[in-house]
Input
Amino acid sequence: MAKEIERKFLVENVSYRKNATSKRICQGYICAEKDRVVRVRIYGEKAFLTLKNASIGFSRDEFEYEIPMNDAESLLERCCIKPIIEKIRYKVFYKNFCWEIDEFQRENEGLIIAEIELPDETTKFEKPDFIGEEVTCDVRYYNANLIKHPYCQWKK
Output
């Protein structure tokens, strides 16, 4: 079991693209409850089944297992709550940390969120210029909630 310690931020500009690598992500949720999620994800050429419990502060338990691509495709089609989350993930290294920036598509088009995983909750880090408001504790931005309340339905 791994411990996920993550902070989330809105993105103010697309300057991250010039120094980034990217992969397409397609993910769905078999379970998306307040205290637990079960997620199926296709990330590039690999597929994963992930289980997470409720966040306590910035951290939560995470169990992730690689699964066959055919199984992931079947689970996404037959077992996952709709809509399926689709996004392009960019990875940028800045001041000894990897930032993952998700540009959401389809029902969540227009939403761009940056995440940083930290070794512990007290770790200090410097933010790149594209980072905006922190939304770590705002549940609207959790991927599991974006299937229930997609960004396109939010009042601007």
